[in-house]
Amino acid sequence: MDIEQFRKAGYAAIDRICDYYASLQARPVIAQVQPGYLRKLIPDAAPEKGEDFTVVQDDYQKFIVPGLTSWQHPSFFAYFPTACTFEGILGDLYASSVCHPGFNWSCSPASTELEAITMDWGAKLLGLSPAFYNTSGVGGGVIMTTASDSALTVIVAARSRYTRLFPEVKAEQLILYVTTQTHSLGVKAGLVLGLKVRAIDVKAEDNFALRGEVLRKALEEDTEKGLKPFVFVATVGTTSSGAIDRLEEIGPVVQDYPGLWLHVDAAWAGVALSCPEYREIAKLASINEYATSFCTNFHKWGLVNFDMSTLWVRDRKLLTDALDVTPEFLRTKHGDAGTVVDYRNWHLGLGRRFRSLKFWFVLRGFGVKGFQNYIRRCIKLNDLFVSLLKSSPNFAIVTPPSFALTVFRLEPTQSSDINPSASQLNDLNRIFWSRVSARHDIYLTQTDLNGVFCIRLAVGAERTTEAHIRQAFELLSTEAEGALKVWQE
Ligand code: PLP
């Protein structure tokens, strides 16, 4: 393809993208295809000769688009939505057009420098302590692929710091802590690194948040057994229910254990810190006081298209001491002089995408006010959903709504004198869930909270409005009535 052909194909691509967004509302949220559908449509080997790109783009429309689940659909309430904006899309377009794996500053100075600047913008947007700013020269922020990637990286650094502090400690003594509500990223990091992992039980009466004393007890038990606690992954906004670990209690406990790293995973909820009124509930003061590292994903609820996980550390040297491996072929004049940041030394991979561009575009396009308005709008829409649930005698809210997430289920006990057992209620909710998940015009996901089967609704798609929330409630009410009928038969 030459430049003029690219110009033409590029305009056509933008037109198609616009048409896709314009027709989003009318599309199914969930792809209506069966497993293996694409193999039947696409040849089993690449063509011998290059094809006309118009045909290739037509095939995208014909074969790929029907197999897309529309995460940007206004009735997408599953998992945690990944809000995506045109500003972000354009950032990615420019970034891929200049394609460079910016592992060293000299690979493309603009890439490293924009990342350092926008990560400071992000830190200020969220109210993080200046200790986390890149301009501090000590702490700093780096863009990662995912929160799992961020957690794995800091766990590697935490292990490295611990074994430098206590060289006599054996690998099998090291233990990593998560809770039973932490995202699977903790257990996975343990698997990858061959570490002992303890998932501390959190209780329904604590709203599935970890209390300081519960952590202390676990640390004491394990220390008595000769184990060495070196990292704890706390969560602000757990995946299942949006629980917020009690960092104000956890922080002082962690400080009693030299070398114990506190990583705060706020993959979803962290961006709510952009609004001053949510900072107390999201534990900003404790993050600023106690966290060794903090991660949030702007690619979830932060308007930047995937991938855009942001990681801040209080001391960048903790990353570089663990991860700086510099053979001759990676050395540069500025790197040797220590006058630049070479981000390859802050994470596991070498090459990295130019992600700061989309971050910059989004933050400039929305501004702090626009960003805050979007977060507030999502929370307000969730509040509306909660009030609708409360108006119905059939629904119960399982855990306190968290920001833009509600966990609920059917509990007809509120409307009649029947008194079903816990397992009968779970059966009812599985029937309800099978009906809801069979629909293609709305997408929610389910979870299990200590044996209680429930449904989650997370608001976050940029185009969701009050009408979509009301429509969601209507659909859920219809399916609830159907489920209750089947269950009572
Ligand atoms: N942490 C929390 C609290 C999450 O909810 C999720 C995903 O939903 C993750 C981590 C994983 O995020 P990623 O896909 O960026 O690894």
UniProtKB/TrEMBL annotation:
Family: Belongs to the group II decarboxylase family.
Source organism, top-level taxon: Eukaryota
Record flagged with keyword Lyase: yes
The keyword Lyase belongs to this UniProt entry's keyword annotation: yes
One Gene Ontology MF term: pyridoxal phosphate binding
Keyword list, A-Z: Decarboxylase, Lyase, Pyridoxal phosphate
Modified residues (N6-(pyridoxal phosphate)lysine): K300
GO BP term, example: carboxylic acid metabolic process
Gene3D superfamilies per UniProt: Aspartate Aminotransferase, domain 1, dopa decarboxylase, N-terminal domain, Type I PLP-dependent aspartate aminotransferase-like (Major domain)
Cofactor dependence: pyridoxal 5'-phosphate
Name this polypeptide is given: Aromatic-L-amino-acid decarboxylase
GO cellular component assignments: cytoplasm
